[in-house]
Amino acid sequence: MQKLSALEIKEMFLAATNSPRRRYPKIIHKPGDQLNKVFNFLKSDTYMQPHLHPSKEKIEKMLVVQGKFALLYFDDQGEVSDVIFMEKEKKEYVEVPPNTWHTYVMLTDNVLVYEEMLGVYNPDTWKKLAKWAPSEKSAKFFNYLKELKQKAEKF
Predict the structure, then answer these.
(1) CA triplet 47, 18, 59: central angle to 5 degrees?
(2) How many CB atoms are closer than 10 A to CB 84?
(3) In 3D, which of 106, 104, 123, 87 has the Cα closest to residue 44?
(4) Which segments of the chain does DSSP mark as H helices, in order?
(5) Is residue 1 situated within a structural domain?
(6) What is the rounded CA–CA span in Å between residue 155 and residue 152?
(7) Is 83 inside any structural domain?
């Protein structure tokens, strides 16, 4: 895993703060690489529509570098089926199986996650978004994100 300087981390969190999506990726791999590597700088109010990666090779590997988040798994109807709390020096590494509905919610103001996944990136086939969850562009996601955080806390 590539190392980041304190200045890079500060600059990337500032970029996340200024981003409409409230997150910012620092992509490490080159276009066309078989192994995708990225640092994700995430703010507490970012929302990722639940999704799955529709390929047996796409195991999403996540390592917490800073902060705390909850990884939520869902059944096909959109009900939370499991929650894994991720935090440095406690549970800091997880592999999300392919074809598994999931998202994550931030539990601290700043979260930094290093991710890897096999496969050449193609935005049309990389992930399938859950139709039972609001889009990231929908105003409905604010309440949904709040509900997800509450469900994670009760799990």
Answers:
(1) 40
(2) 17
(3) 106
(4) 6-18, 141-154
(5) no
(6) 5
(7) yes
| Cβ contact 99:144 at 8 Å | no
Which pair of structure tokens corresponds to residue 8?
């890079």
More confident residue, 89 or 133: 133
Residue span of the structural domain in which 112 resides: 6-154
The answer to whether residue 42 is domain-embedded is yes
Q: Total domain count for the chain?
A: 1
Banded pLDDT at 43 (limits 50, 70, 90): very high
Lookup: tokens for 50:
């639940």
**58-72: pLDDT as tens digits:** 999 999 999 999 999
Residue 68 DSSP symbol: E
* DSSP letter assigned to residue 125: T
Q: How confident is the model at residue 4 (pLDDT cuts 50, 70, 90)?
A: very high
For residue 33, the model assigns a pLDDT of 94
Q: What pairs with residue 114 in β-bridges?
A: 39, 63
Percentage of the residues of the chain whose pLDDT score is greater than 90 = 88
Helix/strand/coil for 153: helix
